[in-house]
Amino acid sequence: MSKAVQEQVDQLFVAVKDLQSLEEIKLHCEKFNEWINTNTNYSIKSLGTVLSRAGFYKKFKSLPLEQGKNADSVPKHDAQGNVTGYELKHYVLLLCGLDKKDWEERNETTRVSLRLDNGQEISPDEYLEVTGKLLESQDLHEVAVGLIAATGRRPHEILARAKFAAVEGQSYQVMFTGQGKKRGDQPVFVIATLYPASYIIERLNWLRKEPSTKALLAEVAKENPTDVAAQNRAIDSRRNGSLNRVVRAYFGDKGDKAPILNFRHGEEQDNCKALRAAYLALATERDCQGSTGSKMLHAARSAGHFVKDAPTDRDLQNLVTTLGYADYYTTKPVGFPDASEKEKLVQVRAIPADFEYLKELQAQWNLPNQQSVVSRLIEHHKNRVDVAKLLQEAQQRVVQLEAEIKELRQINNQLEDSNNQLEIANKQLQQEKTAMESTASQPTTVTLNVTELDSWLEQKVIEVVNKVTGGQAIAPAAKVIPAKVAPIKEEIDWQAKTDAEVWGSKATLAAVEKIRRSYQAICLYNDTVATGEGDRLAITNQALRDLSGCNGLLVRDWIEAHKDEVISHNAKFGMENKKDPSNPASYANKGKDTDKILLLINEEFLSGEGFKAGRN
């Protein structure tokens, strides 16, 4: 049917290309539309694709356009529907094909995004086992599907266009030419093979020599002698049915409870496109151990969506096409299967020089026949393949080890930072311990509960007597006279005391009041006196310690209890610890003359007591 559409497009172009009147052009357009509506049943999406392949839009865009004669000015819109300008369009493009509403309906699809949200897992071992069975088959349709599954190529590429060449030193890669859908370009690039490259090349050569394959290629070439794209479409059209039947028979059909290849979202059975998507998932997982972005780039190159060595940012837009095949994934390692070994002997052709060399090797190795020589040569080749596999696996292990080393270095750096912080904290504790020992000799008033003291004294007396008498029974103890204890002191309201009284006391609650007044003094200074970032003081452990004269542990506990107020005040002036908001300590005071600022706060807001006491 697409061939008939092509003929109608060509006839329409010849009929109207020289016309300069809307009325004349309209008659031919009505005739064309009537034929399309009567003889085809394409959907909006399919019709746009068929007309595009027939060159419908390209032909009429190539004609010289004149307003009011053979063309009319129409608005151009952006993605939001706003008019961004105007362009001339030939009357045929306005009267035939899809209108603006049809194009919008055609392009609004969520198929890819839904597939990505509903990814399907592949079992590499099961997929490779089925692919191996297809490759060793003697049925050309099964071999073709096996090659598609093992290389990710399109059907027309496998049947007609693809050329595979060995890559030196790489047993599971081939140099590929014959990419379809490139509009005249002939890229050459390396692709991965899920089976040994030599085996893939052998099976492709076998397929191409089959009489049925040769007949198909000759037939489509005769129908479209100069249009390779049309030949490719004809090949896909004639073989897709038979190839998809093989895919469904081996990988999964409608009604199968456990298909080898899970159906893609929106599909009821498998097809050749599913094999292409599965190949990209397995080949990328096996050969690319990098980041998510590098895996996407690797998959795009394997698919042929992007083959440049040095991509620009604009070139990377082609990665969107690769997303359409990125719905399969695997959580298991992908192996390197060998080609199947066949017990049945077959004839091998060789030129006289090669045959003579086989006989020389037979004599040199003292083997019974030429078949043994061939087996020995194949064994040598397999050994090289094994070495290549080991090398590739070793390279992958090196990449993993490098990543682990990098991670260990990061952990080591973190441990060094933690150790430095602990050393600083230890020095502060030693200083505070020294300060506490210097005050330990001062008398301390202890308040005890009288009842508890009586009980304690009685227990001590019993223990001493038992020790003296060796545990013998003793006469009842004399009545214990309660000890005189200091009366319970009345709690002091330190907030009502003057700065001099607070800083003159060494009581714990007085120290807490020192810290509170120091905090309020810094806040008042920042709000009323400080003029800019250079002379504002962030509220940190060090600042409160210097201003109050209290030890760092007590300051730390006070900050933890009033963390919200501290963080809020620091944040008000942009002095918060942005890396760790829960820790008000920061480097906001670095580079400032903190001694000068603290002295000013002390003199202005603390009656000159705090900073002096702290420094003393």
Automatic annotation (TrEMBL):
Chain ranges of the Telomere resolvase ResT/TelK catalytic domain: 120-312
Swiss-Prot/TrEMBL keywords: Coiled coil
Coiled-coil segments on the chain, per record: 384-442
Gene3D superfamilies according to UniProt: Telomere resolvase (1.10.443.30)
Entry keyword Cell membrane: no
Transmembrane intervals: none
Pfam families reported for this sequence: ResT-TelK_cat
Protein name: Telomere resolvase ResT/TelK catalytic domain-containing protein
